[in-house]
Every structure is written in C-alpha cells, then in structure tokens.
Amino acid sequence: MIKKSQESFEGRYSRMALEQKADLTDRHHRTINYLRLSVTDRCNLRCVYCMPDEGMTFIPHREILTYEEMLHLVELCVANGIRKIRLTGGEPLVRRGIISFIDRLNRIENLKEITLTTNGVLLKEFARDLRKYGICRINVSMDTLKPEKFNAITRRPFFEKVWEGIEEAESVGMAPIKLNVVAMKGFNDDEILDFARLTYRKPYHVRFIEMMPIGAADTRMKGFISSGEILERISTLGPVRRVESESMAGPAEMYILEGARGRIGLIGALSHHFCETCNRLRLTADGQLRGCLFSDRETDLKTPLREGREDPYLSALIRDAILNKPRGHDLDLNNPRKCVRPMSRIGG
To answer: Which CATH superfamily is 32-50+58-346 part of?
Structure first.
C-alpha cells in the first residue's frame, strides 16, 4: 500500500511538467520565486539572539547536504519557478568551497539572481571573488556602529574586520550593500538615527528588522521595538519618502531621506505582517524545505534524494510545499510564540 501511494504521488507530475518554466503560485495566489538556501549552520560569531556562547549543538556533517545535492535541488526548484536565490547560514563564507559552488549556481539556466547574507567577518577576504563569480549584491548583519556593543552582541572582537569587509565589497562594485540591523530597545535603539544618517554619506540600504521570536531571541522579546516607532524617530531628521521595492525583493518597506544617497528599509514581521506578499521558500542545510520562517512544518527533501528517488518525485514534493505554503505566520505582539528550530539552522 505504501508503494502504491508513493507511485500515485510521483505520478502527479510528468517529466514534461518538470521541465515547465512557468512561475508557480500557492493556494493564496502568491507567486513563489525566491529561495533562501542555507549552506551551513556553522558560524564564526555567537550573536546573543541567535546562538549560545558555548554548548551549541550543530548538525552532524553527514546530515548536511553536499554541494552536489544542493545543486540538484536548486535545479529542481528553478524548474518549478524559483528565479532568485539568497545564500545564508550560519555564516555561508565559513563553508569550504563556497566560491566554486557559487560559480556552478550561476550556470543554472533561468536562475536570474544570486545574493548572499553574511556577518562580514570574512568579507574582505572573499569580496573580490564573490563579485567575480556573480554575487553583485550582499546583505551584511550589522547591529551596531560601536565596537564595544558589537563585541557584546556577537561575543567576538571583529568589528573592524567587518567594516573593512564592507568597504572592500563597495570598492569591488557590489551594490547595493544592505546592512541588516536587528533593532533592540535598550541596546541599540539609541543608534537608529546614526544608522539613518549613514545613508546621507553612503549608498547603503540600512534595513531595520523587528526582533522575532526564533530560537534564543524568544527570551529577549522585551527588547522589541516596532518599525512604526523606528520610522517616527527617523522622521525627526527630515522629510522621508516611501519608494518602491525592487523586483523579487524581500519584505522591507523602503524609504529615502531627502538628500540621502542610500535608503532605509523597515521589516515589521510582528507589527506589520507581510505574509500576503511573501514569495519565498527556505531550504535548510540539512535538506528541509520550509514555507514559512515561523512555522516548524518542513518537507524532507534530503531523505528521498539520498534514497535515489527520481526527479519527478522530488519535484512533486517541491510543488506540494509551494502549493501548501502557510497563508501567514499567525504571530502578534501579544502571542510571540517561538519557532523551535534555531535561526542558525533555518538560515537568516
């Protein structure tokens, strides 16, 4: 009976369907074209809202997808409508062979864009090769402009290295460079205006992200500050104008201060749900496909891949995950329930 059920599932999609290039929509009429791919759960920082300082349990190496396995699954995702990929971690640059992997990703037909999120520690070393092999835009996690605060939040003394990496990325032509700032009341909210002023001098996109109840961050929700309050503070600097987001962009609402070179983004996961326009899937380093950052529902792609299942079966799993992507995360400020899997294992 089990075999019959599996054959029925696999039979839903022929190879002709697999080769279709049309975008796919979920049950809620959202076009799903963006995949966030976590290449590792390892990291060279220990940010307080992401990992404990010691005793972190990492995914065993044998359970992490090989690059060959990732390439295979990415090709299937692209055949099912994915057009943009963001590489995440952990810290993606700590995985050996990442440049060669990016080079091979860029050869996949119909994949239009590859970007990367990094903590910046290794960016100075990798920036030129990243640009050479197709990474034109990056996001850098940067929660403070003060070295002592950086050391406190990351538990590592790499502030100068990160800024050297950002400057190197700018010098090799990466643009726009996006700085991701997790806003935390009582810790870095006194720097909101300093970050905003940075856009007068630099063409960076500074993106303020609301604290989200994932992993270790759950215990720190008392530091929550809303995107609305952040915008109010920024407005004290002068006129702020709303601008359109890019094609296939993420959930940030984009603004520009009058006379600024850069832009300001606000990501309000709790105060302003962006679920109705969510266009993404997430593939974890251990091969689990997730439709929502805040949902622990996952589709296991690694097991059938390693069992030798054929592409139509794997494609059917991907299409099923797209079709059944949750309508929303059902989080609110009064019910900040926690996602069980830590952020480092999901992919930032």
So the answer is: Aldolase class I (3.20.20.70)
